[in-house]
């Protein structure tokens, strides 16, 4: 008997509440621009935040109301952006594709460890223990936090423990920039081919003891570069991309290969001088 | 029946047995929406409103369930009522203030699963409060929740500009503050029932 009471009581109660909610839904209906839903459907639903908005829906709202431009979405395909632009009747606002670049070339084959880290395999954790044990304090630790954090499988650790960015898959969402405890990643327009793959601030050749491809701040690149293309700052060359000189010349002048040329097909071109010192085998732990 | 005065019931729910800092109920919004003073007060208001409505409904439902001899339906009915009330509040806020709706974000629908609200409904039934007492109890609990939220939001706003060790920034610091605040509220222990 009590089961019937229970069903009746609960059924009645829920029915009552349902009716109340239906009425409230009608009375309190908020008009939303139907274009928002459609634009949101056209976006990739990655919610990565690369556009500068918290997610795809806020970006869709901004597209409809604040005249933000679809080109800001770096994840969507060209056709996807084009169709949104046509749907809303706005400019595409194309921005140049950006990719994440790593400012370190010191894999295990050229850079040594001063201590062996055996804790949790994570750069963030390793950094807390005296900087992670790598000889070069500024260099990549190679535990692959960036590979883990990348939602688009664009980062893969190579055999020397350096992350390799797949420029096709990279959407410039900036997750790897944030996660790297050494701040080695930055987002760069893909047309910036000349790249300083080193971040050590040490002056002179002392760094070569720890890493054979480190920048020795010799300044040869800055001296020979056309115009103001390269200047030395904090013992590192700084490339002024606004100069527009996309020349491979500086990489030939670099004695260690700290300046590289990143080709479209993903290969890293190094100068003749530096090619010599890239060794075949991995370096052993400890002093060499 | 119980013999406490309405003032005692209010103070009891608000300070002595503060839902957040003494009972540790409703910790989720306590940590989640306490970043800014403005949203904290509004969240407090929304929770207080839901507590009030669900407390009144809980009183009615309890009387009804006892009369048909099915008090075992208490818990499930309370949950249904609270969920519907939150839905209603959500629609209401979306209509009245879209900005507040956006700043409360996911925490607004999460009031549904806020144990502090179910706590109010269950405690008042356990303590056998009358209708008026229930309302005062819910208001006290809501005020206490708002108080806790405002206290921690104020501290967090100040600490945003303070120099603190990097390792304790963010959630860790919030938990420190929450613990210390809770210790402070232990000073009220024993004053009420």
From TrEMBL, chain A:
Region ranges (Hydrophobic): 1-25
EC numbers: 7.-.-.-
Coiled coil regions, renumbered to chain: none
InterPro entries per UniProt: 4Fe-4S_dom, 4Fe4S_Fe-S-bd, 4Fe4S_Fe_S_CS, 4Fe4S_Ferredoxin_RnfB, Elect_transpt_cplx_RnfB/RsxB
Domain (4Fe-4S) ranges: 31-90
Cofactor binding: number and manner: Binds 3 [4Fe-4S] clusters.
Protein name as it appears in the record: Ion-translocating oxidoreductase complex subunit B
Cross-referenced Gene3D superfamilies: 3.30.70.20, Electron transport complex subunit B, putative Fe-S cluster
Automatic annotation (TrEMBL), chain B:
Keyword Transport: yes
Lipid bilayer topology: Multi-pass membrane protein
Cross-referenced Pfam families: Rnf-Nqr
A cellular-component GO term for this protein: endomembrane system
Signal peptide: none
Protein localization: Endomembrane system
Biological processes annotated in GO: electron transport chain
Domain of life from the UniProt record: Bacteria
Membrane-crossing residue ranges in chain numbering: 6-33, 45-66, 72-93, 100-123, 135-155, 167-191
Keywords from the UniProt entry: Electron transport, Membrane, Translocase, Transmembrane, Transmembrane helix, Transport
NCBIfam families (UniProt xref): rnfA
Protein name as it appears in the record: RnfABCDGE type electron transport complex subunit A
């Amino acid at each position: 008997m009590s089961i019937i009471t229970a069903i009746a009581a609960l059924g009645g109660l829920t029915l009552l509440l349902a009716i109340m909610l239906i009425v409230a839904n009608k009375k309190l209906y908020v008009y939303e621009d139907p274009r928002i839903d459609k634009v949101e459907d056209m976006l990739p639903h990655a919610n990565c935040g690369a556009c500068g908005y918290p997610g795809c829906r806020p970006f869709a709202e901004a597209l409809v109301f604040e005249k933000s431009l679809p080109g800001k979405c770096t994840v969507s395909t060209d056709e996807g952006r084009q169709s949104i632009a046509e749907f809303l009747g706005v400019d595409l606002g194309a921005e140049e594709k950006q990719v994440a670049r790593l400012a370190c070339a010191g894999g295990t084959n050229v850079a040594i460890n001063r201590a062996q880290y055996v804790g949790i395999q994570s750069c963030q954790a390793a950094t807390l223990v005296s900087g992670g044990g790598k000889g070069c304090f500024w260099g990549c630790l190679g535990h692959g936090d960036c590979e883990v954090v990348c939602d688009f499988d664009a980062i893969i650790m190579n055999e020397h423990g350096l992350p390799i960015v797949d420029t096709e898959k990279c959407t410039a969402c900036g997750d790897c920039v944030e996660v790297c405890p050494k701040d080695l990643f930055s987002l760069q327009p893909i047309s910036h081919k000349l790249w300083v793959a080193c971040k050590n601030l040490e002056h002179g050749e002392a760094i070569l003891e720890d890493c054979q491809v480190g920048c020795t701040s010799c300044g040869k690149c800055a001296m020979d570069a056309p115009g103001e293309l390269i200047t030395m700052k904090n013992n590192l060359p700084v490339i002024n991309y606004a100069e527009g000189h996309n020349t491979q010349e500086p990489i030939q002048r670099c004695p260690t290969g700290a300046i590289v040329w990143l080709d479209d097909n993903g290969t890293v071109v190094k100068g003749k001088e530096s090619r010599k010192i890239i060794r075949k085998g991995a370096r052993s732990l400890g002093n060499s | 029946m119980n013999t406490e005065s309405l003032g005692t019931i209010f103070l009891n729910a608000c300070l002595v047995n503060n839902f957040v800092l003494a009972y540790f109920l409703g910790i989720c919004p306590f940590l989640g929406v306490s970043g800014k003073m403005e949203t904290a007060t509004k969240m407090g208001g929304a929770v207080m409103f839901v507590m009030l409505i669900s407390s009144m409904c809980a009183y009615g439902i309890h009387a009804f369930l006892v009369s048909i001899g099915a008090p075992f339906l208490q818990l499930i009915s309370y949950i249904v009522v609270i969920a519907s009330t939150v839905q209603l509040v959500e629609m209401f806020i979306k209509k009245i203030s879209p900005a507040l709706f956006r700043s409360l974000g996911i925490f607004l629908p999460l009031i549904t699963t806020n144990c502090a609200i179910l706590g109010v409904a269950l405690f008042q039934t356990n303590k056998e409060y009358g209708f008026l007492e229930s309302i005062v109890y819910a208001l006290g609990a809501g005020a206490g929740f708002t108080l806790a939220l405002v206290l921690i939001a104020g501290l967090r706003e100040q600490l945003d500009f303070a120099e603190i060790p990097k390792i304790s920034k963010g959630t860790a610091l919030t938990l420190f503050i929450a613990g210390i605040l809770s210790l402070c509220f232990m000073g009220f222990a024993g004053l009420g029932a």
